[in-house]
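does this look right to u?? nicotinamide-adenine-dinucleotide version
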Amino acid sequence: MANISVFGIGYVGVVSAACLARDGHAVMAVDIDQNRVDVINSGRSPIVENGLDDLISDAVETGHLIATLDAEAAILNTDASFVCVGTPSNADGSVGLSYVKGACEIIGRAIAKKSAFHSVIIRSTIVPGTMESVCIPALEAASGLKAGVDFGVGYYPEFLRESTAIADYDNPGLIVFGALDKPTFAILNLLNKNMPCVTHEVDLRTAEMVKYTSNTWRAVKVTFANEIGNIAKACGLDGQLVMKLLCSDDKVNISSHFMRPGFAFGGSCLPKDVRALQQLAKARDVEAPLMAAVLQANEAQIGRAERMVTGSGKSVVGLVGISFKPGTDDLRESPLAELASRLIAQGHDVQVYDPNVSTAHAHDTTAGRGNDVVPDLRDRMVPTIEALIGASDILLIGNTYPEAVSPLQKAMASQPMVDLTRLQAGVVSNGAYQGICW
Ligand SMILES: NC(=O)c1ccc[n+]([C@@H]2O[C@H](COP(=O)([O-])OP(=O)(O)OC[C@H]3O[C@@H](n4cnc5c(N)ncnc54)[C@H](O)[C@@H]3O)[C@@H](O)[C@H]2O)c1
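got this back:
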């Protein structure tokens, strides 16, 4: 069992403190608000949350949970601190870090007076890079000690939802954390060892980003369901039934399919059907800004790839794949064909390797249906991946093909490359190699 201090007795802090105490840990809950401290010490919950009053009254009675205003005493008497203070929006919408910074300064000053190792684990929601640019400097400046060496540092985002907070704490969908040092990883693993869910150890920034990704995804889901519901109602349909049926497909619709960052969508269906639904909404006087943003964002992704190539200053572009996805010769609304056409218009010599389009060309002189953007495509086709690599100043990877992977992975070391699909798991942008989202 561990001795833990929890800074901030708000929604996150009080639930964590009560659940840790219930699980047998010795918990000191710290706040700057006397009233919250008094409410906890009287065995009650300072917030309305299903089941929390009982947990707190039991934990206070057994002595597993004590609340205090005395931050120094809490640091001196525990092995690790969870920082759960608020991060409200600044006036411009950016994340407000004054409470987090203030808490780190208080904790840093107390750590300076302690000889035993102490881990500081931030649970507040903070944008990627905040641990490194704000929390760690504040802790080091206040303590005069080195983070990751003299004291531990971790970031461990909380995903619980108010109203089901205890159930979410006990049965989380995701546990992810980062730390600078082994003792902090060890305490986080110890605290999570009985959770019915895999724990993911990552770097601090990835953990910070995952929290924002999770909340923004939840927000996008709500808005998407609402827009569909509004359009459905305008067509005399039950929007909840439509979404229920959509969600019953956990193979493609509610799954990790289409959730891998990379290049734009295209093909004969998605762009056309998003446009048509948008037009249907317009015709029924239903606002659907998310639908409009989907097409705008897709267009922006093509522009992003275009700038990555034009910004390289290279002239001959070896495009791997021009159909809208591998495994087909279909060029209808292929974002890779659109990208090729824009690069050609900018003066690049674009050469293309696409075995499926080449096969279609060989079998049928009218092949290439839907290619209304690169009229001289046949002349730009290169028969082998080796020939394409040899002819190019920069390689642009749009699709991958089994026979192309190994030669392209070798070329990666010596040739400039813009990768829209990720040739090799784990590879990240580095000098001449640039991945579109990694
Ligand atoms: N509310 C949620 O459902 C939820 C879920 C997951 C993550 N989060 C994130 O967790 C963080 C906390 O959210 P919350 O809703 O629990 O906040 P809250 O506003 O309810 O509570 C914050 C508490 O911190 C206290 N505090 C401020 N400075 C302090 C200091 N120096 N020392 C000790 N206590 C101090 C405040 O007095 C307050 O009681 C935020 O970053 C939030 O985005 C919230």
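Residues 7-13, 30-33, 36, 84-87, 99, 102-103, 106, 124-125, 158, 160, 162 surround nicotinamide-adenine-dinucleotide (CB under 6 Å). idk if thats expected tbh
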